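Hey, can you fold this one?
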Amino acid sequence: MKSSSLNWQPVILSFLAIIGLALLTSSFVIINPGQAGVLSILGKAQDGALLEGLHLKPPLVSTVDVYDVTVQKFEVPAQSSTKDLQDLSGRFAINFRLDPTEVVSIRRTQGTLENLVSKIVAPQTQESFKIAAARRTVEEAITQRAELKQDFDDALTSRLAKYGILVLDTSVVDLTFSPEFAKAVEDKQIAEQRARRAVYIAQEAEQEAQAEINRAKGRAEAQRLIAETLKAPGGSLVLQKEAIEAWKEGGAQVPRVLVMGGEGGHQVPFLLNLDQLEPTPTNPAG
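Sure. Predicted structure:
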């Protein structure tokens, strides 16, 4: 009988050692870098987040919820109306992370990260986009895209900070407009192209008219200079030179214009068309 009781002692001791080891290991929790933990005792979250390192906890009656506090990225759609009541849709990529010191509040109010995204991040993205879009027309949303994003960032950052969410960066993945506005933009571009074409044609016509005026002024000035040259001494030589050049341009033909002499040593041009001269009829009887 005594020997039988002695045989159970190693088993009992081993069992107690296993229980003791289990209790010992369940009394500690390790929080890795990039994580934050929330200690709950009998289902009640305790104040004070567990940051990276080794922490004690009551065995058996406590649990630790671990949250990833590294950068998270989600794409969230949003819709709004602009200042001129045009429909505007967008899709935003949001980079954020949880504030490690606020994970206890997140655990009590939202629970999991998935709930946080669906119940907080997505609705606040929608509201922030409405704020940014309502400040400008749909055309300004296109031409002032950087300002639109800045207004969106400011609104979203302030709204999510209340929930322990730190917004690191956002980017506009896409902006979509209503079909009516897209058609209006296309029609406006066509009208602007036609207007620019009309202005170009008008400017071209104006330039051509100015060029013609300049050519006319040039011809008038040339004629004036020629007239002054002819009036000056030796002006007859100019006419003789012109007659010779005209003769050269016409080849070896006999010139049809003759320059007759004048009075006082000046040659006065006298135009004589030789083709109009008719031969004087001869008298056969003479």
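The helical segments are 2-25, 103-109, 113-133, 138-143, 145-161, 179-231, 235-249. Let me know if you want another pass with a different chain boundary.
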